[in-house]
Amino acid sequence: MFDRFRTFLDSLTGSGSSVIEPGDPRIAIMALCIQVMEADGEIHEKERRKVRSMIKDHYQLDDAALNALITAGETAESQAIDFFRFTSDIKRHFSEEQRIDLVGMLWEIAYADGKRSEMEDHVIWRIADLLGVSGRDRIIKRQEVAAKLDVVEETTAQQEK
């Protein structure tokens, strides 16, 4: 699923490149991943592990480069006032299919703790909208990830009722 995405990113950053420089599109992706992790007000260790695993495998980074990317993403995320800073850069450089695949990655983070919250839904909806990903594609990706991870399709608010 991420082969097209990986090929495109490799063309932007160099295959396996571990140098993190300002303007590196991996920083925007990491910042969005962090936004999704923080959306429900609590960051679960499972979410952290999921992000580390996905990004490390995807970019073929060693631990030092991964930690540098996470730090750069955290810094960028903490300085941003909205998602536009990240989504506009991604939208300029990524094809529609790659942006849809990115939304799938964000759903994997949301489901990493076994459930999704309404806030995670909202954050991913907003990011997808800014990326130009249709509501239909966003929902299809959510359903694909839920089926892959074998999780029940309900938000935490629905679970509390």
From TrEMBL:
It holds the Pfam family TerB. It comes from the Bacteria. InterPro entries: DjlA_N, TerB-like. Residues 26-141 form the Co-chaperone DjlA N-terminal domain. CDD domains: terB_like_2. It comes from Pararhizobium polonicum. This is Co-chaperone DjlA N-terminal domain-containing protein.
